[in-house]
Amino acid sequence: MLLAIDPGTLESAYVVMDEKTRKPIEFEKTDNFSVLRRIQSLVDSSYTVAIEMVASYGMPVGAEVFDTCVWIGRFDLAASQMRARIRFVYRKEEKLAICGSPHANDATIRRALADRYAPGEGNYGKGTKKNPGFFYGFSADIWSAFAVGVTYLDKEAGLF
Question: What pTM did the predictor assign?
Answer without folding.
Answer: 0.94
